[in-house]
Amino acid sequence: MPRDPPVTIAARMGAGVEAGVIPVEYRLVAFVAVIGCGPIGGALAHKLALGDRIREIRLIDPHPGMAQGKALDILQSSAIDGFSARVTSAQALQSAAGAAAIAVADSGQTGAEHAGEPGLAMLRQIAAVETTAAIVFTGASQRELIARAIAELHIGRSRVLGTAPAALESALRALAGLAIDGSGADIQLQIVGTPPSPMAIGWEEATASGAPLHSQAPPHALAALSARVPQLWPPGPLSLAAAAARVVEGIVNGARRPYSCFVALEAGPARNSVVAMPVDLGPRGVARVRQPALAPRERTWMETAIELKPF
Questions:
Q1: Cis before residue 5, ω within 30 degrees of 0?
Q2: Which residues of the chain are in CATH 3.40.50.720 domains?
Q3: Nearest Cα to 165, choosing from 145, 183, 141?
């Protein structure tokens, strides 16, 4: 299966053929593999299908019939939701070979996130058949699995990342929007550390409709939002799936904005520590880890998070 599908050129015809032709380039990725059809995996497959930016979403779950039933259910909604993406299913983990990206979700049988020794054994099988695709961990309890994938399976740290921090970031954006009587969609912020604690929220560089957030919300309101983080973790399946879908689409189709993700640090005394950081995405996973602008107290919290929970 080709790794880089051809670019399709779409054209809009106006009154004059030459004047009205507007070239638009977009890539139809071969397929994305979603490992596990539990609450997160099923919601992720549906979210990716709705986005209609990926040619095929392949739900993979070893329990007979579960992935097939969920894939069929999503596919049958395509005429109502208006998407043309294919949603297929498979039982064998080897079916992930050739994927543009692999999302590790949760078991269709138990609903538990893939983690621990069973998660590592599953990941070992995947790594044996797919050596280049980014591996996206969608759950809130998979930080240790990311660390073990790097340390024990020797998967490149730029290939593995976890998207649960982006779901927490979304919750904070929604609450910040309410605090200023606005919309969470207009809020931009990033989180660093190891949610739910210790961690830091980049209030210093957070914005609302392009303006500094701290100019629109008093310090005590932002402090109250920070205090609510333990209640917001772990995020629910729909939030986790929505965050994972955005990151997967960013990996396979490109993304201009950074996302808060679990990543393994590359250098320094905290090398290989898995923490939430803002990252730029590339076709093979993490293109760059950004250093957020933090107030002195926020930076202390970030350093404490790395020190206390190194993995």
A1: no
A2: 7-163
A3: 141
The first and second tokens of residue 249, run together, are: 């689409």
Query: Would you say residue 228 has pLDDT above 90?
Result: yes
Delimit the CATH 3.90.110.10 region(s) of the chain. Answer: 165-308
Taking residues 227-244, report their average pLDDT: 96
What one-character DSSP code corresponds to residue 217? Answer: S
Say how far apart CA 91 and CA 260 lie, in whole Å: 31
Asked whether the predicted pLDDT for residue 11 surpasses 50, the reply is no
For the beta carbon of residue 269, count every other beta carbon within 10 angstroms: 9
Short-list 256, 253, 263, 281, CA closest to 100? 253
What's the rounded Cα separation, in Å, for the pair 8 and 124?
Answer: 35
More confident residue, 266 or 39: 39
Class of domain 165-308: alpha beta
User: Pick from 120, 72, 66, 65: which is nearest to 57 by CA?
Assistant: 72
Q: Can you say whether the dihedral through the CA atoms of 250, 251, 256, 257 is positive or negative?
A: positive
Q: 292, 290, 289, 291: which is closest to 158 by C-alpha?
A: 289
d(CA 255, CA 140): 23
Whether the predicted pLDDT of 122 surpasses 80: yes
Distance CA 311, CA 184 (A): 32
Least Cα distance to 262 among 277, 282, 245 occurs for: 277
Burial 209-237 (b: 16+ CB within 10 A, else e): eeeebbebbeeeebeebbeebeebbbbeb
Q: What is the pTM of this model?
A: 0.87
pLDDT reported for residue 12: 33
Burial class (CB in 10 A: 0-12, 13-18, 19+), 298: buried
pLDDT bin (cut points 50, 70, 90) of residue 18 is very low
CA atoms within 13 A on the CB side of 215: 7
Amino acid at 154: H
The verdict on domain 7-163 having CATH code 3.30.365.10 is: no
Residue 30 has pLDDT above 80, yes or no: no
